Amino acid sequence: MAALIDKENWFAESEVMWPGQRFSLKVGEVLHHSRSAFQDILVFQSETYGRVLVLDGVIQLTERDEFAYQEMIAHLPLFSHPEPKRVLIVGGGDGGVLREVARHACVETIDMCEIDAGVVEVSKKFFAESTATAYGDARLTLVHADAAADPAVAAALARRQTPGGWPGYDVIIVDSSDPVGPAETLFEPAFYDSMRAALAPGGAVCTQGECMWLHLPLISKVVSACRDLFPTVEYAYTCVPTYPSGQIGFIMCSLDESRHALVKPVRAPVGHLQDQLKYYSPDVHAAAFVLPPFAERELRK
Amino acid sequence: MAALIDKENWFAESEVMWPGQRFSLKVGEVLHHSRSAFQDILVFQSETYGRVLVLDGVIQLTERDEFAYQEMIAHLPLFSHPEPKRVLIVGGGDGGVLREVARHACVETIDMCEIDAGVVEVSKKFFAESTATAYGDARLTLVHADAAADPAVAAALARRQTPGGWPGYDVIIVDSSDPVGPAETLFEPAFYDSMRAALAPGGAVCTQGECMWLHLPLISKVVSACRDLFPTVEYAYTCVPTYPSGQIGFIMCSLDESRHALVKPVRAPVGHLQDQLKYYSPDVHAAAFVLPPFAERELRK
């Protein structure tokens, strides 16, 4: 991946999924570079965005703006649910989604299925002060497996699905990378179908849903497939300066058929949590579903 | 400016105002490059964003995403006003704001004050099919002068301020470049004060307000100064992938003191206009003022 850092010390993102445009960050120091069983893992200290995690040449997070993503992908589904107790996180190895889920006192169990143990290890080492802060949470069960295809996951989920005991997940959050590489199958209808089967009544799914400026046909295809599986399907977005085109969306599906399911929060952050949050608020929640007409026309049809 | 296009034909934006980060577009062909009396003007055909206008090394517009900026800076103030008849555009030489203003049938006069005749000429030549479509509008009076400092502008405005005739502008839109270079004085309180004096009762101002991710202290300073001048001051934003950090905001000031002035539209696009708009809608209007807490805390205090 050294080729991605030029001789003036600029890291340039690989642009497989966004041809013709490129975002770069000035590198202070490369802190880590390895190849796991699944992908290339790079961590560097940037000059103006804190530490940066890069997988397969694509920026996953910077310490300066990660909150805009982590808060939204976690709190949009969690504050849409009256009392989420059982949560599954797919992906999210950097720990940021886990950090946000752990902030909900009502959550009793957090299962996490991250394909790449290498990402978790690297994050615990280099992002211990930012995203990887909740790996010690007593509610967490961490499994390393392919959530979409690996029999180990089926087994992990089955453990939760034994008759008479496990009522299903209230919220499933899929914090995946792009559908090029290890996360490809996470954008397939079959995976959404397996998530539906693992939900408790009224449960909801929130997945990394790419960027409306770049991948509207892909988003439209997944949203349309989800409409055959769930009574409520919505698309929301957040703004993250270091993601391609500065924006990323969420495909959200719920078993709750009521009119404002997902788009209006039914709980709100209070006290200390309210002060901690930098991007999420109940008003931001509702506004995140308001799409410009160019996207609205494509996704609501 | 040739140094900004590397030997692999990538144009990289100059990063004076956003150190440590850089956005690049792949160049198909350079169509124009000149130096006007005020600034460096570059036009190129990009591989994936259509034609691109660059001033002093900073992207002003691409044909692929310009609508997200032009529609919002124009329609936020225009649809907040019950019947805007007299509109002043400061800057906006590419013609995009003029195109949007001209879509309002109730507008009777459009004065435009663009410092650089070179930008207008270049835009008429290279963006005749996209932004520079309304320069032939019979309602338009175009003046080339410095709106903040040049006596010619004072004269132009005075023409409108003669006793017994001119009631003032209903809407003033300031589509300026960044406060480094010719637009610097447009971010000073004195300029906001002169705009206030040129407004009709209930009139409003909407100015290019930089990016909350990059320039919150600058925005906060201008917003705070405006609060001493106007009863209503708000900040809204839009998402533009090719602007730094993918987002740009608007500082809006109104002489209307009512509770929802600016933040709720009082008119809505209908018929053909409704179909034409790609970014603006009444719901997008309201959502544009909903800021994430990290910005809200800084600007509302």
Automatic annotation (TrEMBL), chains A, B:
PROSITE patterns registered for this protein in UniProt: PABS_1, PABS_2
GO MF term (any one): spermidine synthase activity
Pfam families: Spermine_synt_N, Spermine_synth
Catalytic residues as annotated in Swiss-Prot or TrEMBL: 175 (proton acceptor)
Residue ranges occupied by any PABS domain in the UniProt entry: 8-255
Keywords: Polyamine biosynthesis, Transferase
Keyword Transferase included in the entry's annotation: yes
InterPro entries reported for this sequence: PABS (IPR030374), PABS_CS (IPR030373), SAM-dependent_MTases_sf (IPR029063), Spermi_synthase (IPR001045), Spermidine_synt_N (IPR035246), Spermidine_synt_N_sf (IPR037163)
Family, as annotated: Belongs to the spermidine/spermine synthase family.
NCBIfam families per the UniProt record, alphabetical: PRK00811.1, speE
Protein name: PABS domain-containing protein
Organism, as annotated: Aureococcus anophagefferens
